[in-house]
From TrEMBL:
Keywords: CBS domain, Lyase, Pyridoxal phosphate. One of its GO terms (biological process) is cysteine biosynthetic process from serine. The keyword DNA-binding does not apply. GO terms for molecular function: cystathionine beta-synthase activity; transferase activity, transferring alkyl or aryl (other than methyl) groups. Its EC number is 4.2.1.22. Its cofactor is pyridoxal 5'-phosphate. It comes from Solicola gregarius. The chain holds residues 1 to 338 of 456 of the full protein. GO terms for cellular component: cytoplasm. It is an enzyme of class 4 (lyase). This is Cystathionine beta-synthase. Pathway: Amino-acid biosynthesis; L-cysteine biosynthesis; L-cysteine from L-homocysteine and L-serine: step 1/2. Residues 141-161 are annotated as: Disordered. Signal peptide: none annotated.
Amino acid sequence: MDYVDSLLDLIGNTPLVRLNKSTRGAPGTILAKVEYFNPGGSVKDRIATRMVEAAEQEGLLEPGGTIVEPTSGNTGVGLAMVAQQKGYHCIFVCPDKVSEDKRNVLKAYGADVVVCPTAVPPEHPDSYYSVSDRLVAETDGAWKPDQYSNPNNPRSHYETTGPELWEQTEGRITHFVAGIGTGGTVSGTGKYLKDKSDGRVQIVGADPHGSVYSGGTGRPYLVEGVGEDFWPQTYDRDICDRIIEISDKESFLTTRQLAREEAMLIGGSGGMAVAAAVRLAEDLQDPDAVIVVLLPDGGRGYLTKVFDDEWLGRYGFLPSDQERPVGEVLRRKDGSLP
Ligand code: PMP
């Protein structure tokens, strides 16, 4: 019989898929590491399992303990899944701007979600940072993974994502492109690939316009999961040979193209990374380049944003007339719907 003992055995070993039409004819090969194949639907399953196992080994998390983390996104899903399988309780703390759908995903795995007001400064007692610290202090057996400072975040990529890419490309990878949020993915994977290739593999960070990694001040941008307004400990500031800055508009239009041209329904940070990978290929003009770009998650969680014409139009991000939004194209000349 062919089966695994637990869903956790399916984390990692995600496929590499060649991008075809969306490379715009740039020379070289662009391969996508498709992380939505992880059982929790994102790259964050890798860090969730590694951070929890390390905490168990270090005695920070004991049987029946509680995981407390201020997150509402992919890391929450990864932690909730690992906690369910290992018998831990989870409390996630998130600001009230987080959609009810996202909170319900966490609850569906059996986690508790505490919602805090968005409109208060971080030092306020009701801020989600303060509340999560208080919950850790007041809950017996509580442990906070803190993905922004936990060395097991980049380590999980040094131990899994990096070796997978080296093997999958038979050592022929020349460039690795990834968005930077906590920096765990680019730092851990990048370090492994540098070590393995004696520094030959080039590491390229993709960053939203306005984020600190590309010299910004933290100015607001819309793409989720990447870019920061501070420098997290999990980011190795020496790892990137180059940082490519991508606008919200280009990130979102590329994300939509991936669905229509490669049948890959992905999140906006993946579109941002692909836009950077294509720009890199255009700059290199090297037919032997093997560029790997990491796609962190799937697009289902963004249907009412990136894939919604009205939402995109509100920010002036709609593509040119030839690529009019679906609703428009389907309309008859008199404006009625067929
Ligand atoms: N994209 C998405 C959707 C994410 O949730 C994250 C994690 N914050 C990233 C990209 C960036 O990954 P990392 O934190 O490893 O830099």
